[in-house]
Amino acid sequence: MIVKILGGGCANCKKLMENAKKAAEELGISAQFEEVKDYEKILGYGVMRTPALVVNEKVMFSGRVAGVEEIKKILKKENA
Length: 80
Fold this sequence. Notes:
The chain is built from three helices and four strands, in the order E-H-E-H-E-E-H. Helix 1 (11-27) crosses helix 3. The relative contact order is 0.27. It has helices spanning 11-27, 39-44, 68-79, and strands at 2-6, 32-36, 52-55, 58-62. Residues 1-76 form the Thioredoxin-like fold domain. This is Thioredoxin family protein.
């Protein structure tokens, strides 16, 4: 599973990455995490607001920081 955080490296981006890593760890899911800071690449996903969470190349949400429990639900669904 590939998890990407789209954003310029702001505090919210870092928090979203932290929450995503914690969610994967708590679920015991092996995931590769990447930060995407290049705005052309971010726009390529159709994302206009950051931070955004991308799992297996699908944009799950953008413009906010989700909590660990919400991300766990997304990862469970994508890992099924």
